[in-house]
Amino acid sequence: MTRALLDRDAVLAAGLGAIRSEFAVPTGFPPEVLAAAEAASRRVPDAHRDRTAIPFVTLDPASSTDLDQAFAIEASGGDLLLHYAIADIGWFVEDGDAIDREAWARGETLYLPDGKAGLYPPVVAEGAASLLPDGPRPAIVLTTRIALDGRGRIDSVERALIRSRAKLAYDAVRPADLPPDFPEIGRRIRAAEAARGATQVDPPDQEVVHAADGRLTLAFRPLLESERDNAALSLATNMAVADLLYAHATGLFRVMEGPDAVAVARLRGEATALGLDWPAATTLAEFERTLDAREPAQATMMLAIRRAGGGARYEAYRADVVPWHAAVAARYAHATAPLRRLADRYVLDAALAVANGRPVSEATTQAFARLPKVMATADARAGRIDRAVVDLAEAAMLEGREGERFTAVVTDIDDRGVRIRLTDLPILARVDAGGRAPGDTLTVRLTVADPAARRITFVV
Prior knowledge:
Elements lengths: L2 E3 L5 H12 L8 H10 L8 E2 L5 E5 L8 E8 L2 E9 L10 H9 L3 E3 L2 E3 L4 H7 L8 E10 L5 E11 L1 E6 L12 H15 L8 E6 L5 E6 L3 H23 L4 E4 L5 H13 L10 H5 L7 H11 L6 E4 L25 H14 L6 H37 L6 E10 L2 E6 L5 E4 L9 E10 L4 E5 L1
Parallel strand pairs: 2-9, 3-10
Antiparallel strand pairs: 1-12, 4-5, 5-8, 6-7, 8-9, 11-12, 13-14, 15-16, 15-18, 16-17, 18-19
Helix pairs in contact: 1-11, 5-6, 10-11
C-alpha cells in the first residue's frame, strides 16, 4: 500500500507552496493583531477558582504546543468524574477586538504537511492560553460524571486556574503516567458508543513520511491506543455539553446524516475494489466493526466510510429540530478545541452560563446565528486544502509511471462518469467507460501524472 515518492525537483515543497498561494493560507498575523495578542497575553486571571491542586495532565502529539485540553479523573462511588480543563481563550479575547475579528475571518486553524496557519497568534495560542506544564493557566473546567454504562452528564462548569503536571505524548506515554482510572473511563465510553450504535470507525491518518533511505513515502498511520482513549474523553464531554445546552434551549450543534442507500452501495463497490469480504446480509455497522486500521486495505475502507455520510455541519438551536450526529448516534457539540476552532469559544461561554444559572449573553446568542455559515466556509476551505494535498501526493507517487497498466474496480457511476479505485494503491480516479457497473474490474492505463497540476488521468 505504501510506495516511495521520488519527489523530483522537490515538487512536494513547490506544490505545497502553490497550494498555500491558491487557497490564500495566511503566513502570519497583521501587526495590530499581534500587538493586541501581546497585550492580552499579560491579562491576569482574576475570575478563576484555584484548582491547581487537581493533578491535571495533557496528552497530545509530542510536537504540539497549542494544548487545548488537560484532564484528571477521580472516583465518585460507582461513577467516574472526568475533570476536563479546556483552554480559556475567551479570557484573552474580547468580542470585536482585533484578535476576535481576525479569528472570525479565519474560522479555524489550517493544517498542511509543512506547517499550520493558526486561528490565534502564537503568543496566546501556544503561550498564555495553552495548558502547558510550566505554570498556572486559566481554563474552563467541565466536570462530566461518567456512569457504569458509559453515559455522561455535566456536573459542573467553572472558570479555574489549573496547573498541568505533565505534557504527555501519544507515542511515549506509559500507563503509570496516566490517572489510574484512565483505561476504565475509556472502556465505559466505548461501551456506550457500541450500545448506541455509533460508528465504530477510527480511520488512520495518511501521511507523507521519510522512509529509511530518505525518500518520501505515502503511508497510513493508525491511531494509537492512547489517542483513541484520549478522543473518548473529548467525545463524552462534547456530548454532555450538547445535552446541557439543548436542555436549556440554546447552543450550537454539530450534526450529520448517515450514509444513504446510494452511499452504502458505493461503499460496497469500494470494499470489492479493496478485496474485502462484505457479505450481502451484513449491515454497514456490522461490517465496520470487523475493520482493522493496521491493515492498509481496511484502513483505506475506514477512510471511505468516514467520508460517506452527508457531511457534518453546524446548526444553532431551534425549538422544532432535534440536532443529531449520525456517526456519534447522539446530540453532539464542539467545545473542546477552542484554540483551533472559533465555534468552541462560544459553546464554552454558553455552557459556563447555563451551568451556573445565568442567561447566555446576547453576543454569544448572536454568534450562534452567524457561526454555521462562517464555520462551513472555513471547513470547506480546509477540505479543499486537504484534497489538494492528497492530489499532489498521488500525482507525485505516480510520476514517471505514465504508460503503466493498473487493475481497478468500479466503485460508483454518476453523471460525471465512472469512478474507480486502484486495487494496489490508495487512489481514486474517474475514467470514461460506458456500460460498467459497480464492482466491475477494469484494466486502466496511466496517461498523465502531473504533480504541478495535481492531476492524474487514466484510460481504459
